[in-house]
Amino acid sequence: MDREVAIIGGSMTKFGQRDAWIRELLSQAGEACLEDAGVEPDDVDHVYVSNMASGEFEGQGGIMNAVAHDLGLLPAYSQRIDQTSSSGGAGMYAAWQSIKSGASDMTLLVGGEKMTHKGTGDATDIIASITHPAEYKHGVTLPSFAGMTARHYLEKFDAPRESLAKVAVKNHENGTRNPKAQFQKEITEKKALESPIIADPLRLYDFCPITDGSAALMFCPVEVAEEYADDYAVVSGIGGATDTHVVHERDDPTTMGGVVDSGEEAYEMAGIGPDDIDVAELHDMFTILEFLQMEGLDFAETGEAWKHVEEGRTAIDGDRPINTSGGLKSKGHPLGASGVAQGYEIYEQLVGEAGERQVDAETGLACNVGGFGNCVITTIMEAR
Amino acid sequence: MSMDAIRCPNGHVKYPTHPRCPECGEEPVETIDLSDRTGEVVTWTESTATPPGVREPNVLAFVEFEVDGTPVRALGQIADNADVETGDEVEPVYADELREPGVGLKPADADQEWDGYRFRLSQ
């Protein structure tokens, strides 16, 4: 069965420090998505719930069952999707597969995470538990990998430290235009460069915060989409790839193989190239990751992404805006929600519902990175 | 205690060990102990926000060894959080507890070693 896969609605909760626990966050986004798409609960065939660690964070399992039950979706097929920080992107992949294959005619994807009730140390440990035991025993954290990679990038390509701060400044500025973002305040380059060191040479403002939140998207075949919406988006390309579990085993610390491989797959499926992408959401869990993804997706030559940022080309009024939503940096990063929220931002840009963040875009891309590039999903969407 | 890497029939050298060579899928044919060799710091960081049971700060580095002309890298703590720079020559030094067992998410008896090798500047 060769069907085109459409996205006809979406939603996200406010990201930030929330009182709601995981079940409530997921059902808030799911309910809002049903309403936005104009879909009745009875019409949902499959529901996928992207989440990394509800068990570790709050001792709650079975959340796909909870969402299906709480939203009246029974007896829909339900599944929880965990691919660490790229659980949301993996959910996009699963939802796309369910429609593409003909297994489902209406699929709800909800991603969410509840994190802020844990202290930074405990949350960092839950996230660091994805590492290989040979890494974990040294007390490595994801921010430490970012620090080592950033140093290597700056030394290898003679890039200025300030260029990383400019990524944070840009994404914070975009966040001021997003009422759902965790942070809605601009920062200065000076403030970023003088913030406390977290993993030298990276400082506090090079990192995304710990966040509670949820986001959702509704998928169906294009023929069905025509019944529900005048404007919608299609998933024209999607690719997923896995890199080494042990980060130091990669040939080049500044190349994320999963980004390159998933990007190539998505470009090939969509039949387009990097020059055709009008707007992109990249996984800026750390500022350095925005450079690595720009280069891995061929938006910039190797070692030159920092120049694009310095020249303002990735700003909201630049030739290819990146992270109009504020990115993970400013919008926040509730692990399982992030890939879905990236897709939601691209969807809103394509259907013209991005409000103050609206750019002129027909084609958009989202790159969702799990671990430190360990698993990556790249999705290309086009306006219809 | 040793710091074991594997070599496969195609000459790939990988640390830590895997049941199959991550590069070509062949079964390893040899174990190589890196603990008595010297390596070079590829990059490093000083982490100031560490998880429960981990020393704070925690200086970490990627170190590259060479085994018969083939590079192989390892991640490790820098002993005594000493000042290091990219390009420094370092050597492994055994530590019986790299982080406190059982304090973080993983139980003390998990699939997890707690001892291993730090790196110190070559003497």
Automatic annotation (TrEMBL), chain A:
Q: Where does the Thiolase N-terminal domain start and stop, copy by copy?
A: 5-221
Signal peptide per UniProt: none
Please tell me whether the keyword Transferase is annotated for this protein.
Answer: yes
Transferase in keyword set: yes
Gene3D superfamilies cross-referenced by the UniProt entry:
3.40.47.10
UniProt cross-references to InterPro entries, sorted A to Z:
Thiolase (IPR002155), Thiolase-like (IPR016039), Thiolase_C_2 (IPR055140), Thiolase_N (IPR020616)
Q: Which GO terms describe its molecular function?
A: acyltransferase activity, transferring groups other than amino-acyl groups
Q: Which UniProt keywords apply?
A: Isoprene biosynthesis, Transferase
Ranges for domain Thiolase C-terminal: 239-382
Give any Pfam family that matches: Thiolase_C_1
Residues that span the membrane, as ranges: none
What protein is this chain from? Acetyl-CoA C-acetyltransferase
| Gene source species | Halorientalis persicus
TrEMBL record, chain B:
What SUPFAM superfamilies would the database entry show?
Nucleic acid-binding proteins
Q: Pfam families of this UniProt entry?
A: OB_ChsH2_C
Identify the InterPro entries for this entry. Answer: ChsH2_C (IPR002878), NA-bd_OB-fold (IPR012340), Thioester_dehydratase-like (IPR052513)
Where's the ChsH2 C-terminal OB-fold domain?
34-93
Highest taxon of source: Archaea
The name on file for this protein is ChsH2 C-terminal OB-fold domain-containing protein
Origin organism is Halorientalis persicus
Task: Output the lineage of the source organism.
Answer: Archaea, Methanobacteriati, Methanobacteriota, Stenosarchaea group, Halobacteria
